Amino acid sequence: MAYQHQYLDGTKIHFPLGKVVCIGRNYAEHAKELNNPVPTEPLLFIKPASCVVPVAEGFAIPTDQGSVHYEAEIAVLIGKPLSKKPSAEEVRDAISGFAPSLDLTLRDVQSRLKEKGYPWEIAKSFDGACVLAPFVPGDAFEDLADIPVRLTINGEVRQDGNSRDMLNPILPLIQTIAGHFSLQPGDVILTGTPVGVGPLNVGDDLVLELPDVSRFETRVL
């Protein structure tokens, strides 16, 4: 099933699928669980559009490259161009939707590359490395500092976070990103993962949600 942006009610979104901009270690406890230092500025990287797959009907993971870790995140859909140094009001107006998502990582591959001081895009940008759910409209949340995200695997809650715990809150984060490179309608921001990441296995049953707003059941194929 090919990915296309859509809202929770099934309405197709006309924005083309663009780049996926991610931030690493945006929750202090997650940085600590991987024995990484807590950053003092946003750590940004980009996933290509080719890595995006829909949450519906399940998704596949590589089985021949070591451990594949899940990272549940709040995804933000950009609906208007942003560049240079947009105001907080301009960023808020450009947000078209929010959705739960999974940023998948080839953790063994990433660790080997980091040990050698090499870039680790191949651990983050493989086909299927970004699992996106349908979006709720941008006005679904009045307070962007109070957006919950939760991941349940095989009946056990593994991640249960909230945007209030982000080191770089959503609006300032997007302002920073747009200050480095332009954002276009259809681009997606993954805002970081809370504590609790771990390996996925074929056959795992997942529930990915923005509690009380959207909920999706899926499976690792």
UniProtKB/TrEMBL annotation:
All residue ranges annotated as the Fumarylacetoacetase-like C-terminal domain in the record: 19-220
Lineage, highest ranks first: Bacteria, Pseudomonadati, Pseudomonadota, Gammaproteobacteria, Pseudomonadales
NCBIfam families the UniProt entry points to: PRK10691.1
InterPro entries (alphabetical): Fumarylacetoacetase-like_C (IPR011234), Fumarylacetoacetase_C_sf (IPR036663)
Coiled-coil segments: none
GO molecular function ontology, one term from the record: acetylpyruvate hydrolase activity
Domain of life: Bacteria
Gene3D superfamilies linked to this entry: Fumarylacetoacetase-like, C-terminal domain
Protein name according to UniProt: 2-keto-4-pentenoate hydratase/2-oxohepta-3-ene-1,7-dioic acid hydratase (Catechol pathway)
Assigned protein family: Belongs to the hydratase/decarboxylase family.
Pfam families: FAA_hydrolase
Metal-binding is among the record's keywords: yes
Listed SUPFAM superfamilies: FAH
Alphabetical UniProt keywords: Isomerase, Metal-binding
